[in-house]
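Comment on both lines for my students:
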Amino acid sequence: MTTTPNTPMPAERLEEIRRELEAATPGPWACDGITAPDVYAVNGGCGNTSGHLLTMDDYYPNQQPDAQFIADAPTAIAELLGEVKRLKNEASELKAKHERNIEFAVGELARLTDGNEMVSNHIKADTILVDLINDDRISKAFEEVDKWYS
């Protein structure tokens, strides 16, 4: 399963990546940095004493960076999965906060439309909406307008 850039990654794909990471040879992994670099598990986790996993046999210009990338991948993937989880939690909290703010604003708007001071209440209602937008320039403008009706 693959995803395209700029589209949400399905939870199933994240879980697939997690499973692949857990099934891989435990790290840390390293790259020895010689002419034909070897990528290996430092703890010898692949069943032999050296922990050898991969040798880049043929010389080519990106051999060393590619080997280092492969060696760094398990740690980077684990970190990225953690960051995805943190960001999803943060997004969920922000969504819940936004929904509470909207609920409050709807209640306040309903309360303000029941009064006899329509113009003043209209300014107050607009101020509530501006607070939700969270733009200081607009808020200051509404404060000035509110002074006219005070």
Notes: The longest strand covers residues 38-41. The chain has four helices and three strands. Helices lie at 11-23, 63-112, 118-133, 136-148.
